[in-house]
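Handoff note, outgoing to incoming analyst
You'll be picking up this chain. Sequence as last confirmed:
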Amino acid sequence: MAMTIGQTFGPNAVDWETRADLGRLRTERLARLNAELERSDLGALLSFDFANIRYMTSTHIGTWAMDKLIRFALLPRGGEPVVWDFGSAARHHQLYNPWLDHTGGPATPEGAARTGARAGISTLRGAFHPAAGIAEDVAGKVVEVLREHGLAGEPLGIDVAEMPVLAALAAAGITAVDGQQVFMEARRIKTRDEITLLAQACSMVDAAYSDLYEFLRPGVRENECVGLVSKVLYDLGSEYVEGVNAISGERCSPHPHVYSDRLIRPGDPAFFDILHSHLGYRTCYYRTFAVGSASRAQRDAYVRCREYMDQAIALVKPGATTADIVSLWPPAAEFGFADETAAFGLQYGHGVGLSIWEKPIFSRLVSLDHPETLQEGMVFALETYWPASDGWSAARIEEELVVTADGCEVITKFPAEELLVAGRTYWTAGGPLNTLRESQSHLNTPAGRGETRVATAALDGADPKG
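Most recent structure output, in case you need it:
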């Protein structure tokens, strides 16, 4: 029997079922990176980027370090990775990360200088005194390993770095060039275990949306929704809740990309983006709800937003291009923006992996002129948006997909084919209150619908035709 690509399991290791193989994950990621390095003209790769360090070395010291640029790792052509890590984390790696042990024996103080896990610290984003020589120390550590491999005269690819470090490397005679593209190419196609972890991450968001749907009602605040989602995810074992975008009411158009303390009101649209990490693997997963009821303008915006999504998904298969997808989406001017830069991120797509914006990128800003070909094993998110005709509400949908041999599989499974109405059902004397209605009650009367003359005439018993 054929199995789905995006399988999901329990998060625990068991002896009676084959689940994500983390040893294979480590081996295959490094092999992909080594292959891309071999295809390049670089002698080595130096990384300060948290996700690239994890991909290269399979080390992690907590998400608090993600924006610090304090740790760094080097992959020499033909050699093994070396990671210089924060204080005692290096000793921990020596004890518990045997895949980094280059000495062939147990970790000892004498062997620490030869292992792939070493102590080191970068410039703390400028917090160290410039005269302390920290940048020069970083450069010295890197140059030492490059010389050991005979690579000091070869270009060194770097993903991100602070200016003092770049200057210190230049002073040491190292030619630094852009290495981010090598990392991005290696990470473009996901391994089977990466796909499993990405699907598992999505399953956790499925659960968060289920709880959020039950929680939504007039009077709750956007920040309360963020708290609820974060708790659900952490209770399920999330490594890191990167963000929850909670947008409601008149804040929906234009999209502000930040949650607030706004109280949700009856008839409000509310859309959410949930970004979290399961063993490093991220989600980017939007859903839109109406709270209590939806106006016709909101419903129509959602229908259009969904149509753009479904048309795009129908084209996804190996050999299609990002240009094919974005050609289906409206130009910025059609939904109220001056150009594609001003509308960037609203009709959009991006790879998802150890970070949320990887290759390939789908945007009319770049994809029509620089298309990328879709390949089996890619995992990416497609995002669509449409502002409602009322001038203040909007719809937002996002689906994550795995490209399969003959199409794709959607791994975001919380219902989104139609606009869901959250909150309690209200009862009138005649039965349940219609959930397709305007939020201002007088607009739901015959008079509010522009039927004033007919309604008044009928009440007077007169002929409405005069």
